[in-house]
Design brief:
By secondary structure, the chain is α+β, with helices and mostly antiparallel strands. The chain folds into two domains: 103 residues, no CATH class; 187 residues, Muramoyl-pentapeptide Carboxypeptidase, domain 2 (2-Layer Sandwich). The chain contains 14 helices and eight strands. The chain has a four-stranded antiparallel beta sheet. The chain has a two-stranded parallel sheet with strand order 1-2. Strands 3-4 form a two-stranded antiparallel ribbon. Helix 6 crosses helix 7. The longest helix is centred in the N-terminal third of the chain and has 25 residues. The radius of gyration is 27 Å and the shape is elongated.
Length: 303
């Protein structure tokens, strides 16, 4: 009789404990995520890499089969998860990596909206693009002319940029490559004139794909160079041996290819094989090795 009572007591304890565990499981994140539709593998990724507030957002939303891919993406930023999901929902034609890149660079908004003043205190790492603008009268005080040996007539640039370009030019010469600066520093008024002309000829929408609006041009910083092969049109630069050398070696001198191919959705500009931007050797090397745009690098590591 005593044994039966003990057995009954143990059964009751087991029943109560099992019920307690079941209730806890039903209240657990794992159960709730499964209820939304996430697999065990996806739940493991979510549990490992998201804090509770971000998990709560997933629990209040429909199942999304891109979530685990986003979380595992190289440049995933946890605080931007909701922005990634919102942008991906409205732009399903973009890959997960593209969504991450676009949102990280702030390009999930329409260009020339939500504009901020460019942070001129960043020096050689200042970002000027379709979301960061310069004042009309802004200029650095170390703009110097470029000699006719290195540029077409009337070009100028910041002193350090010129020094590094000359280093690059000299090394290119040793390989029988001939570089020349087609365009350097442009003040606000010159950019306004160019942009107006392009808009009148091509229409504003088309002009925006290859020309910056006044105040939004990197050329106003004195840190950007349009580089051509001597004796060739800048439009043919991509076909030259100078371009092939420059795209793989410019970072050794502190320059980056500013508007790479297939990055229009981030930069807002068509591929410009001639447009190089000075950021210093260390950052240029990092951007080259990471294979990202300066827009992305700025938001990830500088801002």
């Amino acid at each position: 009789m005593k044994f039966r009572k003990i057995l009954y007591l143990l059964i009751m304890i087991g029943f109560i404990y099992g019920g307690y565990r079941y209730i806890n499981y039903k209240n657990s994140t794992t159960y709730k995520l499964k209820d939304v539709g996430y697999s065990n593998e996806e739940i493991k990724i979510i549990d490992e890499k998201l804090d509770n507030s971000k998990v709560d957002h997933l629990l209040q939303s429909e199942y999304n089969n891109k979530v685990a891919q986003m979380i595992n993406a190289k440049y995933f930023i946890e605080d931007k998860l909701e922005a990634y999901l919102n942008y991906q929902k409205e732009n399903s034609e973009h890959s997960t990596d593209d969504v991450i890149s676009i949102v990280n660079a702030g390009a999930d908004k329409d260009f020339y909206t939500d504009v901020k003043k460019a942070d001129t205190s960043k020096g050689y790492l200042i970002l000027v693009n379709k979301f960061y603008e310069l004042d009309k009268n802004f200029t650095f005080d170390d703009i110097v002319p470029i000699s006719l040996q290195h540029a077409y007539s009337g070009r100028s640039i910041r002193k350090e940029v010129l020094d590094k370009f000359i280093d690059m030019w000299q090394d290119a010469q040793k390989l029988d490559l001939s570089l020349i600066v087609s365009s350097g520093y442009r003040d606000y008024n010159l950019q306004e004139s160019l942009y107006t002309d392009y808009s009148n000829i091509y229409g504003q929408e088309e002009a925006d794909t290859f020309s910056a609006r006044p105040g939004y041009s990197e050329h106003q910083t004195g840190l950007a160079l349009d580089i051509a092969a001597y004796g060739s049109s800048i439009d043919d630069f991509e076909k030259t041996k100078e371009y092939e050398w420059l795209k793989d070696n410019a970072h050794h001198y502190g320059f980056i290819l500013r508007y790479p191919i297939n990055k229009t959705h981030i930069t807002g500009y068509d591929f410009e094989p001639w447009h190089y931007r000075y950021v210093g050797k260390e950052v240029a090397k990092e951007i080259y090795e990471l294979d990202i745009t300066f827009d992305e690098y700025y938001e990830l590591f500088i801002k």
